[in-house]
Amino acid sequence: MERTAFLDQAGRWLVDSGIQEKDGGVARYYRADLQENRPVSTEITGYAVSTFTYLYSLTGNAVYLESAGRAASFLTNVAWDPALEIFPFECPEGAGERFAYFFDCGIIIRGLLSLWRVFGAGDILEIAKRCGRSMATSFAAPDGEFHPILYLPGKRPFPRSDQWSKLPGCYQLKSALAWHDLYQETGEVDYLNWYEAMLAWSLRTHEAFLPGAEGDRVMDRLHAYCYFLEAILPRADRPEVGAALTDGIEKVSRHLTEIAPRFARSDVYAQLLRLRLLAEAAGATPVDRLKASAEASILASFQDNGHSDLRIRGGFYFGRRGDQLQPHVNPVSTGFAVQALVMWRQYLEGNLEFFTGALI
């Protein structure tokens, strides 16, 4: 296989499989067993903007820029609610009461900003700024927390439960990277202050996150905990942050090795590999090349590059139980995996250059 074959095949899947609808929205995943896409998700479409823009930066192929533009157009023209200044979870026809996630809004902002850096359309930045400020006010909760989910249009907090995505937690810092990125682009200090406040809260609370589940459910929390580790990268030069990053990588690696024979998620392998490389680049901890090489090999095994069905070929499966790949071909898993494998090759070749704004 050629050096870039995995990249080209994944790119073709993202563009040609139908995972992106004609209006630009991107489905949550493709169910290979049922031969159907799940509904379009604004969060996944935000990730797709980041992914397409990243692919364009690597290849210069205009088809990726066009796909990113269509996804951004869906988000800004269809999904965006200008009155509420928020992105809803999904956009079904005739929607009544809807939901909005703090996490999703930050992911969408970061996707839009990734395209804005290339394309420079002013309305993209303006919507990103408005949503960033809305995140800080609409989702605000007592004690420095942020409600994970709101009912729309009233913006009432959704009841919390023991499921990590329905609780405040350190994983939300990945969404708060949107504030960091908005500060980088605008210089408006409010965004920086909000990011720093949430960083401090997350550093105080992250130790309790992984013990919040048992058994195979820890794998899902590893994915979310990696979000926290990704989001502290801009401050890895601070001793307490560097220590949390180093310790966190070791914890994720240990849990992943233990649980993977029963249940493994491709996105966790991708996130861990990216973290290893970026932690060394930030001066926090050197890459364990033996472990990273094994993780890259396992991650590559989640891509189906020989299937006859274009709705599957080139995409990365979400997970594996035992030896059985699960029938979910996932655009976010694909984006994470391609970025991690490209970064790994760049690292081995000695030419890895990266900034956190490009992190899908």
Secondary structure: elements and pairs:
Elements: H1 5-16, E1 30-31, E2 36-37, H2 42-59, H3 62-79, E3 98-101, H4 102-119, H5 122-138, E4 149-152, E5 156-157, H6 173-186, H7 189-205, H8 217-231, H9 239-259, E6 263-265, H10 266-281, H11 289-300, E7 319-321, E8 324-325, E9 328-329, H12 331-349
Antiparallel strand pairs: 1-2, 1-9, 3-4, 4-5, 6-7, 7-8
Q: If you had to describe this structure to a student in words, what would you say it looks like?
A:
The protein is mainly alpha-helical and 360 residues long. The protein contains twelve helices and nine strands. The chain has a three-stranded antiparallel beta sheet. A three-stranded antiparallel beta sheet has the order 3-4-5. Helix 6 runs antiparallel to helix 7 and helix 11 packs across helix 12. The mean pLDDT is 94.
Can you give keywords for this protein?
3-stranded antiparallel sheet, Glycosyltransferase, globular, 360 residues, 55% helix, mainly alpha
Condensed summary:
The chain has helices at 5-16, 42-59, 62-79, 102-119, 122-138, 173-186, 189-205, 217-231, 239-259, 266-281, 289-300, 331-349, and strands at residues 30-31, 36-37, 98-101, 149-152, 156-157, 263-265, 319-321, 324-325, 328-329. The protein is mainly α and 360 residues long. The strands form three sheets. It has a three-stranded antiparallel β-sheet.
